[in-house]
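In this section we walk through a basic example: taking a raw amino acid sequence and producing a predicted 3D structure, encoded as discrete structure tokens. The instruction is simple. Fold the sequence below.
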Amino acid sequence: MHLHKTFKKLSVVRQAALIIIILAVLGVAPTYAATDGFCTSPNVSAKSISNVSVETININIKTDALDIGQTKSKVTGKNGITKETYNVVTHCGVVKSKTLISSDVIIPVINGETLVGTRHNVTESSSVPFNTVTQDDPNSYVGTNSTITEGIDGTEETIYTVAQNEGQAETKTQVRSQVTIQPTNKVVSIGSKKHEYVNILTYPVAYSGQYATLTANTLPSSTCNIVVNYYSGPSTAAGLYTKTSDGNGNIQWSWIVGTRTSSGSWPITVTCSSGLDNTASGKSIIQVN
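The resulting token sequence is shown next.
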């Protein structure tokens, strides 16, 4: 009865201290101290040994032996076991530190290996140039040509196998090549018809010191020359120069007959060309009175 009254007179702190003393006497103080921070026991150091499972890791390996999307197991992975030894320090039943002393492999881990395919085909397109072929056109004159068919390039497809092995650069190997669209050759006609005619339409008659005129007809756009041979030789009169026939093939020269030109009939030659090695001539005379 007196103890109860005495306990009630004590402060809260003193009441707690008294309870701890009583618990220590009864043998239950370590448990309370461990949780309430009042343990005064020294630190305890001990070894702890445990076996730890080590998980396997799967490694993918690129290979050109398989197509893309294909896989094949090369090595089956197996977990390992490692024995770990720690130095554990406790205080009043609470772990204060845990230090790894050694780590020993009991069963080594085997990592799994899976082959992953990289082989695949790639198609590349390229153009096939057309050729130009010619054909004879007997209805067109020499020196002329025309396109009958326009050339069109074709298409060629080449198939390659592209693949890669682990740690190596990608390789590209040709499998086959095929022309899928044939080119269309350009066809050009080449005229082979000869320049066939020069027709003299007017025969000049003139007196010395007067104009003389000669008119002829030949193929359109022909290049023509005229030569007038007097007694003294070829005339150099102004107007006797190279001319080109018009769209209807007509051509005309006018020149002055020299005052010293001898009277008589003198030959005239007109030569026309519409291309290399493609000429025709016409003969005429000039009557000088």
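Looking at the output, two observations stand out. The longest helix spans residues 12-26. Confidence is low (pLDDT under 50) at residues 23-36. In the next section we compare this with other chains.
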